[in-house]
Amino acid sequence: MAGIYIHIPFCKQACFYCDFHFSTSLKKKEDMISCLIKEIEIRKDELQNKTVETIYFGGGTPSVLSIEEINLLIDAVYKNHTVIKNPEITLEANPDDLSEEKIVELSKSSINRLSIGVQSFFEKDLKLMNRAHNASEAKKCLEIATQYFNNISLDLIYGIPDCTNNEWRENIQLALSFGIPHISSYALTVEEKTALDTLIKKGKIKNVDDEKAQEQFNILIDELNKAGFVHYELSNFSKEGYFSKNNSSYWLGKWYLGIGPSAHSFNGVQRSWNINNNSKYIKAIGQNKLPIKRETLTKKDAYNEYVMTGLRTIWGVSLDKIENDYGLKYRNYLEKQSQKYINQNLLILEKNTLKTTNKGKFLSDGIASDLFMVNLI
């Protein structure tokens, strides 16, 4: 089984915190759609006849596409790949794009999952992040979307300057009030060269408080646990039966094909990524060339990636898999390096599988980096 990710590199406006690849000009949208279709055709053999189980429209803001453009891209996937009977087809969307008319159109298409970028239900937070929607649009779109879609994921951001713990609880409870079965939640991070980074350096916005972010992460875990959600990956919470198949495929090491500028692909042994420039991407594809770079993972790279992704999930890191796939010295190294974190109750070893405890979850990326293999070959 494999997945296909399609990057739509357009947004109405730039969120201050975002460092993903996008353009706020839609002038090249038509050319881009043609090139995305052409790239799907050019790379049709890369999945080596694996069956596609997920199609994911990410960005950028895929909801800026018309239903006709979305259907053209889905049709191109079906023409060039074998797709399972009921694939998970997700569209990332912003509330301001989801009018009732658009939601009804989407519900009649092959799209069967929406990922809605709400981020916060508080006006001051949305303005601070320069989101294109307001709080009332967020609520209205969810009221309508839940009438037409069962499978909806909602994005929330914690650790926003001046967002109190009580306001954060209110954000979570508002999200739950719509009966949403999946919530993805991320700490506000300050990436270099973003508008947020500049505004903080100029003293116009308070800096992010890591301690407060950790408090709000713990509140998130508690509130969603009480609501019956499974914390199946560091940033993802879901009711049973609603895990994101697309995201889970990344963490479980499945193959995926990334279409569009800046999109990444993985075939089990090699990673590749497209150029993150719309004009250069369109020019190359127009000449039947792939503007792509590739790297083959060493055994050490593959081990490090498995440790990183495994510790973020409920599936953990299997010591038996480490030994079988990478060798006994890798297993011995991991057991030795992880012991101090087990002693600190940040990791737990259950049935030969290493997992983060609740206390260790927020620190999982840092812990993983300390378990990486640096010197062994």
Helix content: 40-55%
Strand order of the largest sheet: 7-8-6-5-4-3-2-1-9
Q: Give the count of helical stretches.
A: 15
- The structure class reads alpha/beta
| Biggest sheet architecture | 9 strands, mixed
In short:
By secondary structure, this protein is α/β, with parallel strands linked by helices. It contains 15 helices and 15 strands.
Give a verbal description of the structure.
With 377 residues, the protein is of the alpha/beta class. The protein has helices at residues 29-42, 67-80, 100-107, 123-129, 135-148, 165-177, 195-201, 210-226, 245-251, 278-286, 299-311, 319-326, 328-343, 358-361, 364-371; strands at residues 2-8, 52-59, 83-93, 113-119, 152-158, 182-187, 230-233, 236-238, 255-259, 264-266, 270-274, 292-296, 317-318, 347-350, 353-356. Strands 7-8-6-5-4-3-2-1-9 form a nine-stranded mixed sheet, sandwiched between helices. Strands 10-11-12 form a three-stranded antiparallel sheet, with no helix packed on it. The two termini are 30 Å apart. The mean pLDDT is 91.
